[in-house]
Known about the structure:
The complex is a heterotrimer of chains A (207), B (213) and C (281).
Chain A: H1 3-19, H2 27-62, H3 69-79, H4 90-121, H5 132-151, H6 160-204
Helix pairs in contact in A: 1-2, 1-6, 3-4, 5-6
Chain B: H1 4-22, H2 28-64, H3 69-88, H4 97-127, H5 134-149, H6 152-157, H7 167-202
Chain C: H1 3-10, H2 14-30, H3 41-52, E1 58-64, H4 70-87, E2 90-95, H5 98-112, E3 123-128, H6 133-138, H7 143-146, H8 160-163, E4 173-178, H9 184-192, E5 199-203, H10 208-211, E6 221-224, H11 225-235, H12 241-244, H13 246-276
Parallel strand pairs in C: 1-2, 1-4, 2-3, 4-5, 5-6
Helix pairs in contact in C: 1-13, 2-13, 4-5, 4-11
Amino acid sequence: MNLELLGTWLAALLTLCIFSFLYKDNPFYKFAEHLFVGVSAGYWLCYNFWNMVKPNLWDNLVSGNWRYLLPLVLGIFMLARLVPKVGWLSRCAIAFMIGSGAGIMIITYLQTNFLEQIKNTLVSLNPAGQPWYGVLNNSLLFAGVVSGLVYFFFSKAHTGVTGGIARVGVVFLMVCFGASFGYTVMARISLLIGRMYFLLHDWIGVV
Amino acid sequence: MRRDIPLIITFVCGLTMIVQFFIPHWPFGEMKSYFQQSYMIIAAFAMILGICNLTKLHLKKIRDKRSQWGYSIVLLFGLAAMTIPGLFIGGIKEDTIFDFLFRNAHVPMQATMFSLLAFFVASASYRAFRARTLDAALLLIAGFVVILGRAPIGDSITWFLPEGYRMSEFANWIMAVPNTAGQRAIMMGSGLGIVATSLRVILGIERSYLGGE
Amino acid sequence: MNHGIVDKLKSIDRRIIFLFVAVAVVVPLLYPLGLPLKASPPSRSLYREIESLQSGSVVLMAFDYDPATDVELGPMSLAIIRHCFRKGHNVIGMALWPQGAGLARTAFAQAAEGYDVEYGVDYVNLGFKAGSIVVIDSLGKSIHESFPKDVDGRPVEDMPLMRNVRTYADIDFVMSMSAGDPGLPFWIMIAQGRYGKKVGGGCTAVSAPMLYPYYPNQLVGLLGGMKGAAEYELLINTKGAATKGMDAQSIAHALIVFFVIVGNIFYFVSKRREKRGDVRV
């Protein structure tokens, strides 16, 4: 049996089962939806075992590296959540992850998403050495960031001068959301093109 | 005790990860490295926990014969179909049963699930996207320029304009200037929010991650 | 305007709209229009960066996406790997998303066709690691400690490519193909922010607008969505899956704009009718 042909037909049939939802919810769609969840869970389990648990934990313990006992214990504590009586043990594992994650986030977000962004906004408004549209773009960029930040500053009422600047900020934000809307449409259409190309090229072979 | 020990763990781990940025030498460098390796392993167990919980939920549904319990059998069948070959028959290498099911079941199903969104975006565009106010109109106009400018059709319908002034250039300008300005303002605000929340978590003020008693 | 038609069209069955969308996508795939493509500045910037790397440079490529976004990021990954192979660069693949490891396998297999490259010597797939930003940071201390084995369980120590690649110091360029969290922002925060490495990015169209603030100071180049993939294919002179989908993208985009305009026309007509107090006979 040609395995590739079998695989293509399996993929095509599952694709059509899911597309059937567009007509209305039906057993074929529900079947594919539940199968998908099960298959995904199985995939995650296998990759977690072969790429994480075995090389990073099991192999280290087997070779006598006993400092990996702590992550093993905390990992088992995490699984203790499945048993209500000892579920509270998982808090230790969660606390470890949350604490470590929070510690990294403070410094990295402050540096990359705040301080560096201030640096990137301090662009040259000096007309010497750059064309007129460069000065205009830089001015707009600076004005947009400052007015956007003023809009998000809710400790002062948006009246008077503050209100005026916040209003300018809203204009920039609307254009920004419009761009996001445009890109979102682009993304969704791309996903559909991919599936249609598979059906027409790989399955039916007319493209 | 059941809440105090986790809070102490959070504080110690958080503080260590902050300090190691500034003092990478012993003992903080070694502690950081150890915490990182441990974190990765515990994260893997967290994913395994999710899968075990899913299995437990659906086994209970089958046992209690709740509404549409038949589909739970399908789900568990899918789980077994991937897990048994993946763990015991050939593993996750190329040209195994696992690889076959990944390429011909998992990939097409997930891709198709998300491709349904294209249809719903079109339906929403027709029924819901209204220029009720000036701000909404501005949003839609910017959206139109980007939608058309980021596809080849944009330049084709503005062929009569000189090179450098066609739709794609306007779309590029919108992305480079007003979009960057707006997104930067949002990014800076949310960055400060994340720093504040992380500090609250490390200091034990924010305890929602511990759950109930 | 006839009120009956307006009301009928306003509340048209959504399955008719679905049919229009399907036709708008299928017809250009069957009968391509060949609309010309142009590369945007962030795409050209990324191309120039990889082009300017010395032959034999080590590129770390993160496959942080899943099958849902493979249609956008798959062609991008393929184009980037092909460009690297053409320039003689070595590529180290890894993933922070479990499905990324499997998709990396597919991308390397496809890209390796037509090039004289050998696994373990010219490219390696290190597989998946759980841990998000912590994994990215751990590469600064030791790649071998975090990835002792590759995706298929082979020891990384035994691979010629990996013998001299131990930390970020041995990596020349970081490329993140990112569909969300964890992804490109974390690579910028750690690889660029902490270790000073040059970072390039490919992302889904949904996340592209949010990543523009990082360009060009923190991110040397950015490919956004299937259009970004098509632009890179244009720059490396290949006609891949992304380029083939551009005509369908164009027609579908025009259809969406048409729907929004028509929907708004009906909305304003209804509003004016209500204001005048018209009653439909």
